[in-house]
Amino acid sequence: MDIDPLELAKDDDDDPAGAPRRKSWINPAVGVTVALLATFTGICKVKDDNIVQAMQQAQADKVDHWGFYQARNMREEVAKAELVQLRLQAAVQPAGARVSYDQAIAQYEALVKDQTVKKEELKRQAAQDQATYDALNFHDDQFDLSDALIAIAISLLAITSLTQLRWLFALSLVPAGFGILMGLSGLLGWGLHPTALVRLLS
């Protein structure tokens, strides 16, 4: 008995009666959704990388400013100690010999004042660096949550493509929607920040 090649090449989309079956919309919908989510994640990734670089710079600036603060503080303490010694020595000197001591005391008093002012400025700059870091970290958390939620959505979409379950496709849109919301919050500077969830994952 000969095998008819046309029978083997019969279209799987045709039912036994010869009428074409309607193709499922799930796989095209999954493909489009995954493509859109991947594109959105890529855009968020660029912004998040820039934020991470700015965070690293703010952290380095804070360390530098606190280092300079400690150096200024040490110079101030040394100058204060020297000032005490000069005042004690000047107290036991005759009136004619106190002129040079008074000049040295004035110089050290000016040095102490100068170091105090510069030290406080460095402290203010270090505090500003920390505030900058915290503000950037706020948005970095938003992008982290967006990445996690979209990854969950893509995993559900992959299972949807295999199982062809429509309710699973609808379920995958829930984390996808929240992921997009968090990503937009990071991109547009919105104040949306689920602190409890961030603390749980940190």
The arrangement of helices and strands along the chain is HHHHH
Largest sheet: none
Would you tell me the structural class of the helices and strands? mainly alpha
Helix percent band: over 70%
Number of helices: 5
Distance between the termini: 70 Å
- Morphology: rod-shaped
Q: Total strand count, please? A: 0
Strand % is under 5%
What is the averaged pLDDT score?
A: 87
Low-pLDDT residue spans: 8-14
Radius of gyration: 35 Å
Summarize the structure.
The protein is built from 5 helices and no strands.
Question: Would you mind describing this structure in some detail?
Answer:
There is one protein chain. This protein is mostly helical and 202 residues long. Helices cover 82% and strands 0% of the residues. The protein has five helices and no strands. It has helices spanning 5-8, 26-91, 98-163, 166-188, 195-201. Helix 2 packs antiparallel against helix 3 (98-163) and helix 3 packs antiparallel against helix 4. It is rod-shaped, with a radius of gyration of 35 Å. The termini are far apart.
Mind sketching the topology for me?
Layout: H1 5-8, H2 26-91, H3 98-163, H4 166-188, H5 195-201
Helix pairs in contact: 2-3, 2-4, 3-4
Properties at a glance:
mainly alpha; 82% helix
